[in-house]
Specification:
The chain is mostly helical. The chain has a domain of 35 residues. 22% of the residues lie in helices and 4% in strands. It has a two-stranded antiparallel sheet with strand order 1-2. Strand 1 and strand 2 form a beta hairpin. Bound molecules: zinc ion (ZN) (2 copies). The site of one zinc ion (ZN) has 8 residues, from loops.
Length: 95
Amino acid sequence: MGSCLDLRKYQDADAVESAFAKIVSGKSGYKPVIERRIDPVKCDKCGKLIEGTEKFCPDCGNPIKRKPTSTKCKKCNNFYNDEDTFCSECGTKRE
Ligand SMILES: [Zn+2]
Ligand SMILES: [Zn+2]
């Protein structure tokens, strides 16, 4: 046992998140509400909802296309946050 747990530890986001959770809740493994990083996508072949980071549909093997989670500002190369409409650095409208 433990091999998949170990892997998870070394994924940046998860490591940060569980460290954060440790501070907030005093216990590790608790998932705080900052969880909304990956939007579920639907397999366009069979319609299965993919909620993880799968690159291929587990049901039909169709490659899953994802929208890039963060886009860069054309003007200053700042990364937009998911919900940003305007660049927080230079005010350029996101496309
Ligand atoms: Zn599928
Ligand atoms: Zn910008």
